[in-house]
């Protein structure tokens, strides 16, 4: 990988996107910021990071034969890559909270934001932003947040964790154009947080429903078995898991 290490910027995704417009960056270019002031997450949320204790970085991945309709596979592969890296660090109970929050037990350790660049009917590249809590101990009004340190009690070298993360993510992304997508979907579903457990979900209008996560469909929507045993499919904007 080509690593660009910066001190402080607003967003690694925005920086990498701007760099792509100015020059032809190599595949697997990584931008790592020691401090990120305007990190973003899913649903327009922000990602808090603590300089010297968090990892905030973005990876540029180029593709050659991936259809725009297969964009969800990038999310699945990235999520699996992060999960497998945490496995190697011996973090317990690693799971993926749909669509791409990475958990240990019931604590969120990592958020992912993916922005795709299109060329006709193909995905030409993706900018994959990762925010990972590593040695953090304080979280501002975020009771569901955790870090590698709070889970294991160990301090970690940020650059070593970064290198492992990038390697595992790229290994999964490299498989997208050469291996079975069904195999990827199966691996992703096996990691789903609270899969096959009765859970509470919140709709856009604030109403609640009970259901059991059974998997995802080919579009990446969440498949939930409802109380009447019917199977409903929800997009990211339609429902939120409460836990």
Could you describe the 3D structure shown?
Keywords: Ligase. It comes from Pukyongia salina. With 243 residues, the protein is an alpha+beta fold. The chain has 2 domains: 2-190, 2-Layer Sandwich (BirA Bifunctional Protein, domain 2), CATH 3.30.930; 198-242, SH3 type barrels (Roll), CATH 2.30.30.100. Helix content is 25%, strand content 35%. The protein has a 7-stranded mixed β-sheet, with helices on both faces. Strand 1 (2-9), helix 1 and strand 2 (29-36) form a beta-alpha-beta unit. The longest helix is centred in the N-terminal third of the chain and has 17 residues, at 72-88. The radius of gyration is 18 Å and the shape is globular. The mean pLDDT is 93.
Q: Give the N-terminus to C-terminus distance in angstroms.
A: 37 Å
Structural class: alpha+beta
- What is the third-level CATH name, the topology of the largest domain? BirA Bifunctional Protein, domain 2
Tally of individual helices: 5
Could you give the count of β-strands? 12
Shape descriptor: globular
Mean pLDDT: 93
Question: What characteristics describe this protein?
Answer:
single chain; 243 residues; alpha+beta; BirA Bifunctional Protein, domain 2; SH3 type barrels; 2 domains; seven-stranded mixed beta sheet; five-stranded antiparallel beta sheet; 5 helices; 12 strands; 25% helix; globular
